Amino acid sequence: MAGYASAASLKPLHGVSLHAVPVLPVLARHLAMTSCSPHTRVSVVRAAGCCAAAVAAALAWAVVAH
CA 53 to CA 15: how far, in whole Å? Predict the structure, then answer.
């Protein structure tokens, strides 16, 4: 139980980063199958950069909470 208590602040970082990793490849595959313009595809992928921001926020929270 002590291991869970000592690493509890790292759980959000693990969850966010673990689930953010497959987002871009899945998004790229999906966009490749659509008839969107290249400009639209790039805009959508840039918007997906929110995943990187979420990982950074979770990392900051883990550092502050630990």
Answer: 14
pTM, rounded to two decimals: 0.57
Helix (H, G, I), strand (E, B) or coil at 22: coil
* Exposure string for 3-24, b = 16+ CB within 10 A, e = fewer: eeeeeeebebbeebbeebeeee
d(CA 55, CA 46): 15
Which has the closest alpha carbon to 61: 8, 21, 24?
Answer: 8
Structure tokens at 44: 């959508």
> What pLDDT shows up at residue 16?
80
